[in-house]
Specification:
The chain is an alpha/beta fold. About 40% of the residues lie in helices and about 15% in strands. It is built from eleven helices and 13 strands. The strands form four sheets. The chain has a seven-stranded parallel β-sheet with strand order 3-2-1-4-5-6-11, sandwiched between helices. The chain has a two-stranded parallel sheet with strand order 7-10. Helix 1 links the parallel strand 1 and strand 2. The longest helix is centred in the first third of the chain and has 19 residues. The chain is globular.
Length: about 300
Amino acid sequence: MTNDQPVLVAGASGFVGRRLCQALEDAGHEVRAMTRRVERYAGPGTAVYGDVHDAGSLDEAMAGCGAAYYLVHSLDSPDFERLDAAAATAFGAAAGRAGLEQIIYLGGLGKELDQLSAHLRSRREVEGLLGTGGVPVTVLRAGIVVGAGGISWEMTRQLVAHLPAMVTPRWVNTRTQPIAVDDVVRYLVGVLGHPDAVGRVFEVGGTEVLRYSDMLRRVARIEGRPLTIVPVPLLTPGLSSRWLSLVTDVDTQTGRSLVDSMTNEVIVEDDSIRDVVPFEPLSYDDAVRLALAERREGA
C-alpha cells in the first residue's frame, strides 16, 4: 500500500482501537475510524460510519483504503460465535471488493492441538474468514492485554481491589503470557505494510510466563494490598462467571466467555514477530504500573 492511502480501523473506539488510531496518526498515516456512532466519536482520525453486522455499510467505509484493522468481537452476546463468523465473512468480502492489500487482525493465543474454548475457537475461525475475500491477513495472537479499560486486565485489577481473600477456581493455575497494550499497539503498527508480515500469523506476548494467581499476587504487591488465594477445584465455569460478575463490573456473559478460555494455556511458542518488529516488551510489573497510572489520570 502507498503512504497516501487511508487505513481503516474497525473497532476504533475500543480498548486497543483508540490507542492504535493515535499511534497510526503519530506514524504519519491517514486514519479512518470506523464506528456505529459517528456523532459520538471524538478520538484520532476521521470518523466514518460502518457496522460489521451490516454488510451494506462496509463498502463506503473501505473505499480508497489500502489496509484495514479488525478489532471487533461480540463476546457480550451468547451467540457470539455465529455473529463473529458472519461479521468476519462480510468484512473480508468487502475488503476484497475494495481492493485492500492487507487486513490486520488481533486474535487469541492457544495451542492448535488443545481443546480450545469457544472464545478461542471463534478467534481462529475469524482468522480464516477474514481472508475469504482474497485479501492477505496478518494475524497477531495475544493473551491477556494489560492496560486501563481492557476487560481481562480490569477483571484482574478489580478482584485485587475488592477481595483481600479469594476462593478461586482451578483456572488461577493456568499459565499465560500477558502483554502491555502499548506493546500490542507497537506490533500492530509495525506489521502494517511490512513485506515480511503480510499473510502471516504471529504470536505476541510480554517477557514473562505467569499463572493467573501470580498475576493477582503481583498486582496486590504493587498496590500494597493483602491477598490470600484459596483454589477450589469444583467451582464450575458457570459459578465462576457469576462470582466474577458479583465482585467486578464484567457482565456475566462476557465473564463466562473469558472464564471458559482461562482453562487454555496461552503462551508464545513462536517469537518470530520480534524479527519483523524488533523491540523489548515491557515486564508485567511495568505494564501493571502503567495501567494503574493511566486509570488514576483518567479518574
